[in-house]
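Tokens as discussed.
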């Protein structure tokens, strides 16, 4: 089980430059590095173009062969159970090793997800977009849970949102089978961190993380304060208090309370309740007040009009 802090991971691994041709040692696939997409605790991800084609992919080079292999195993298993009704969870394209100097670097190629992390998306577009992004995220989780999987390391950085609020989960390194131990987690979003339950992978573990992600997105500083308490005093009561205090969270509070107490039957129910909740939320129209000068101008024009009529008819 791996715990991650909330700070950005600094790594001693330097990235390889754009223009490098990555050639797979065993399968011979050739990918031209275009730019760095991101770097995490488990590896570095590049945007690559498949040589001789216009196809763009994301290529992840792992720091640790075993860690990367377990991520690949999950992706393969998801691919195997792919169900036409569900969203396309399978995006693994190729797995191989790359020789760089005297080192063998394991990598895999996956679909390139064009989007930005949830926090960046909401900062740019506004918190009200959480309604749609949240709904789409619950849909993805429901599909994963139906297959007997639990995402585990659900956090804003692992949720990429496209321009229209469509959502893709990335980083399947933390995915566990239902009933097993959660493989990887990040403290704020972890049920254990808030003394709210164990780290056995179940759908409720993801609901809990989802609820904390919402709290983080709409009440970051309050969450930070609560998280900085002594570990033994942290509890779900702190999260409930934030929901009651933060006006932006109030419309979501019934749903969030149910999620942190693991009160749904299954993720479809969580999805349906979220859908009902967002459809009932009042649409906030910005009411523009008439400026004072306009009111005075109107009164003067009215007065002049009345005078003109009086003078004409006299
Ligand atoms: N398929 C993808 N399409 C586009 N960008 C991606 C894709 N996969 C990963 N990224 C980018 O690369 C970054 C690092 O990827 P990833 O989260 O898989 O690495 P990690 O080492 O497992 O990170 P973490 O420490 O969060 O677990 C992501 O935050 C994201 O910005």
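Sequence:
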């Amino acid at each position: 089980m791996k715990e991650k802090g909330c700070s950005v991971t600094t790594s001693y691994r330097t990235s390889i430059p754009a223009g490098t041709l990555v050639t797979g040692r065993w399968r011979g696939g050739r990918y031209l590095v275009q730019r760095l997409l991101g770097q995490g605790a488990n590896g570095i991800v590049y945007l690559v173009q498949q040589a001789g084609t216009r196809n763009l992919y994301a290529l992840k080079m792992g720091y640790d062969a075993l860690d990367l292999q377990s991520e690949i195993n999950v992706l393969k298993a998801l691919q195997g159970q792919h169900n036409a009704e569900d969203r396309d969870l399978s995006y693994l394209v190729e797995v191989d090793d790359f020789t760089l100097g005297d080192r063998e670097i394991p990598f895999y190629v996956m679909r390139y997800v064009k989007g930005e992390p949830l926090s960046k998306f909401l900062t740019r577009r506004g918190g009200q977009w959480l309604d749609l992004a949240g709904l789409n995220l619950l849909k993805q989780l429901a599909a994963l849970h139906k297959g007997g999987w639990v995402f585990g390391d659900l956090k804003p950085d692992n949720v990429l949102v496209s321009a229209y609020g469509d959502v893709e989960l990335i980083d399947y390194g933390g995915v566990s089978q239902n009933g097993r131990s959660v493989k990887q987690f990040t403290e704020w979003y972890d049920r254990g961190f808030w003394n709210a339950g164990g780290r056995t992978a179940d759908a409720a573990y993801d609901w809990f993380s989802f609820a904390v992600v919402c709290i983080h997105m709409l009440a970051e500083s309050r969450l930070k304060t609560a998280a900085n308490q002594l570990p033994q005093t942290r509890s779900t009561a702190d999260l409930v208090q934030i929901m009651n205090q933060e006006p932006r969270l109030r419309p979501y509070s019934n749903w969030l309370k149910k999620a942190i107490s693991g009160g749904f039957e299954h993720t479809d129910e969580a999805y349906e309740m979220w859908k009902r909740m967002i459809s009932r939320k009042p649409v906030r129209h910005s009411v523009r007040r008439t400026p004072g000068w306009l009111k005075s101008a109107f009164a003067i024009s009215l007065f002049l009009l009345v005078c003109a009529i009086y003078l004409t008819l006299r």
